[in-house]
Amino acid sequence: MESNIKLITDDGLRLDGRALNEMRPIKIQTGVVEKADGSAYIEWGANKIIAAVYVREAYPKHAQNIDRAIVKARYNMSGYSVEERKRPGPDRRTMEISKVVTEALESTIVLEKLPRAEVDVFIQVLEADAGTRIASLTTASVAVADAGVPMRDMVVGCTAGKAGGKIVLDLSKDEDNFGEADIPMAILPRTKKIVLLQLDGNVSQEEFDEATSMMMNAIPRISEIQRNALMSKYNVEEGE
Amino acid sequence: METKQIVYPGDRVDVDDLKPRNGMYENNSEYFSEYFGVVQKSEKFIDIAPFNSPYLPRANDKIIGKIMDIGATMWTVDINSPYYSLLHMNDTPWHVSSGDLGRYLNIGDYIYAKISVSNEIKESWLTLRDNGLKKLEVGRIISVKPPKVPRVIGKGGNMINLIKNETDTRVIVGQNGFIWIDGDVDNVNNAITAIKIVEKEAHIIGLTDRMSEYLKKLKGEN
């Protein structure tokens, strides 16, 4: 379908008024699920996602790893989280996201410290508005840290893409749907190791480099928001 | 006021001449935190004390556990941890015959027990054969986060003794974060509120004094 939607206005701004390298506002809160070992809630633009973490002996017994933990992240979308009702239950896309989120978290959790255990990460998308896999991973990482599961680093995610011929940071729904490319990426901020990188669409080598460097610049800011979220639970009391 | 250094997973920890012990990993002879917590330095060692972490069984810990399942010779016990623990019928003060375990401890019963053995894959076995270890017949059980247990007990037990004396209750604190409280209903409720405050404000200096005032005030109202 040939689209004639103009994603970048004449004054160089995007449809929602953001500059090319501007992110949507992000808000994270921890401790939102009382009975979970750790939990976090994120509002990333219009995305609303809850992540809850439970640590327990892996079940069934034959699934246990004798020397390390297994990680199971489950990404689930609510029926009315998207414009047209999503048929509930796992499908091709949610299975894929669960898999990439699990693998990203596996790379940072110190699995040997929890032999035979299973780290369950339940991710529930209440409202989706582009970039949920990265928002899920960002909030899941906060929830895992909140649970006190040993991890080598936090995981910070970000997206960039190509819309209206320009490389833009943190795609909105329209840019995702009608743009040329979408590149979600997640890294460990200390070592700058990439733990998730996907590409949907077409970009040239130069455009790809520009997008990744744009995301690398944005990641310290997201990392800061994660840290403040973890701290806020204790800050209130410290102020006394 | 001296503030403790707060670290996040992946933060570099300044070890200086101290020996790094818990909650850190090494990379190129530098140390990094594994937890969101505070740096704790003692004379020789440096540790990261996490704000929250699951309880991992350790030999000789006295814990409170809940019977989850009955086998032919062993009870499976929930010890507020990712890992279940086991209690063998020969590790009790009773003469239990195999297949008849339900007569002594049933599913849902609580016990105050000691971890006699734990191994590197976090399997553990309990014993009831020691002073003060028993089945908990009456009272109520609450849970606090395992890393907050030392604060609930206080230096030399002064915090928990304060709560016991001021609320007139009997309290047993398990190292795993389960706490047993017995007494009059109102007193028990007061003790629970007090313990929950200690858990929440565990990292603030001068808590024992404020707790003492708070409990005196509670007592005055009744």
Description:
- The complex is a heterodimer of chains A (about 240) and B (about 220).
- The mean pLDDT of chain A is about 95.
- Chain A has one domain (about 25-225): GHMP Kinase, N-terminal domain (Ribosomal Protein S5, domain 2, 2-Layer Sandwich), CATH 3.30.230.
- Chain A has helices spanning about 90-105, 130-145, 175-180, 205-240; strands spanning about 25-30, 40-45, 45-55, 70-75, 115-125, 155-165, 165-170, 180-190, 195, 200.
- By secondary structure, chain A is α+β, with helices and mostly antiparallel strands.
- In chain A, a hairpin with a 7-residue loop joins β1 (about 25-30) and β2 (about 40-45).
- Chain B is an alpha+beta fold.
- Chain B folds into 3 domains: about 5-50, OB fold (Dihydrolipoamide Acetyltransferase, E2P) (Beta Barrel), CATH 2.40.50.100; about 60-135, Nucleic acid-binding proteins (OB fold (Dihydrolipoamide Acetyltransferase, E2P), Beta Barrel), CATH 2.40.50.140; about 140-220, Ribosomal Protein S8, Chain: A, domain 1, CATH 3.30.1370.10.
- Helix content of chain B is about 20%, strand content about 35%.
- Chain B is built from 4 helices and 16 strands.
- Chain B has helices at about 150-155, 160-165, 185-200, 205-220; strands spanning about 5, 10-15, 20, 25, 30-35, 35-40, 45-50, 60-70, 75-80, 85-90, 110-120, 125, 135, 140-145, 170-175, 180.
- In chain B, a hairpin with a 4-residue loop joins β15 (about 170-175) and β16.
- The longest helix of chain B is centred in the last third of the chain and has 16 residues, at about 185-200.
- The interface between A and B is medium-sized, with 34 and 28 residues.
